[in-house]
Amino acid sequence: MIAYLDNNATTQVAPEVIEAMLPFFTEKWGNPSSMHAFGGRVAAHVREAREKVAALIGADPSEIIFTSCGTESNNTAIFSAAATGGSHLKIITTRVEHPAVLAPCRRLGEMGHKVVEIAVDHEGHLDMDALAREISGGRCFVTIMWANNETGVTFPIKKIAQMVKEAGGIIHTDAVQAIGKIPVDVRETPVDMLSFSGHKIHAPKGIGVLYIRKGTPFRALLLGGHQENNRRAGTENVPYIVGLGVACELAAEELRKGAPARMAGLRDKLEEGLLRSCPDSRVNGDKQQRLPNTSNMSFEYIEGEAILYHLSDLGIAASSGSACTSGSLEPSHVIRAMGVPFTAAHGSIRFSLSRYTSAEEIDYTLHHMPAIVKKLRDLSPFVRT
Ligand code: PLP
User: Fold this and answer.
1) Residue 7 half-sphere exposure toward CB, CA atoms < 13 A
2) Is the minimum distance from the CB of 209 to ligand 1 under 6 angstroms?
């Protein structure tokens, strides 16, 4: 049996998406920018996909640019803001962003920009007072994630965007983990730019989106051809763009049909079952204000990686955010920013579900986890006697 509970890392490609993509490898492989009919036929499909992607987030199709991934979308937004914002622009982000936001912001810091990383509390909530102070102190660009990839905790992006717009700043949000799991609508949430990624919503790896609201100052990152209305050079990845269009259409339908509630039900069953069956376990991050598919749990006194290896042997895929530093495993920057105690931080594991996750996968995991935790605790040097 296989239990795939690592959907925040990547998702399986939906069969409908694969089916829609195939003709664009075999029959309709023209270049959509070509002048001839062979390419023109393909351009119509790119247009249709752009409309479907825009519809998922309430955007106008002209506000959508296709990129290669969420990382490229984030880098494009951040470097564009810096290029159009002048040398005194202050960049405001948070300590718990994905590296695809933190690294470009830190690069801008090295290049002379003032960069501020707002802290979070024990539950993963943003320090809104500190954020308000920073936003009011001069011209700013704010890049804050909609939902955290490790804990699932969501930030009040609508309120943050309103604060930024009132102060005359520019706001980008990394919505890679939010899209398809909770409603995201740029008509209600006044962000200027928003990133997301195909492979988190059952499209293939290698396709991403950057939404840019009309009128937002913009400077392209990739220079070359005139594709994407001069905003992202490079021949369009037509099969993946078509696949993403279908994935977005399916995501909208699943949101309407209640997939989030179904995922939350299974996630809560897993979480509550593990809290009951594994002593000294805890949930990291606010349990209410979070994505319906994510659970970040700590099992005290044992290493998360050791749990992952044992789970993997049984065909269960989950993840931990730890990074290997100087030969020892360091808890992720997100878990550390939340101040999770040392003994729990090292045993943190992320389970993340998708609309394909079955009750059997959850039962299978619930069945095996207690014995794994017990076995590792018996070996742990940290366990109290
Ligand atoms: N932002 C967040 C919040 C993510 O979770 C990820 C991927 O895990 C990314 C950005 C990067 O997306 P991609 O893998 O498409 O580059």
Assistant:
1) 30
2) no
Distance from Cα 152 to the centre of ligand 1, integer Å: 13
Task: Pull the structure tokens for residue 348.
Answer: 């943190």
Domain coverage including residue 115: 15-255
Q: Is 178 in the pocket of ligand 1 (CB under 6 A)?
A: no
Distance 146 CA to ligand 1 centre (A): 12
| CB-CB contact of 198 with 245 (8 Å) | no
pLDDT tens digits for the chain (385 residues)?
999 999 999 999 999 999 999 999 999 999 999 989 888 899 999 999 999 999 999 999 999 999 999 999 999 999 999 999 987 899 999 999 999 999 999 999 999 999 999 999 999 999 999 999 999 987 899 999 999 999 999 999 999 999 999 999 999 999 999 999 999 999 999 999 999 999 999 999 999 999 999 999 999 999 999 999 999 999 999 999 999 999 999 999 999 999 999 999 999 999 999 999 999 999 999 999 999 999 999 999 999 999 999 999 999 999 987 666 556 678 899 999 999 998 888 889 999 999 999 999 999 999 999 999 999 999 877 765 5
Q: Do 169 and 50 share a domain, yes or no?
A: yes
Catalytic residue flag (residue 248): no
Nearest-CA residue for atom 5 of ligand 1: 149
- CA of 324 relative to ligand 1 center, distance in Å: 19
Are residue 110 and residue 245 in the same domain, yes or no? yes
Angle (CA) 179-181-183 rounded to 5° is 70
- Give Cα 278 to chain centroid, integer Å: 29
288 found inside a domain? yes
The sign one gets for the Cα dihedral 41, 42, 43, 44 is positive
Residue 189 lies in a domain: yes
In terms of domains, do 162 and 303 share one? no
In a domain, 384, yes or no: no
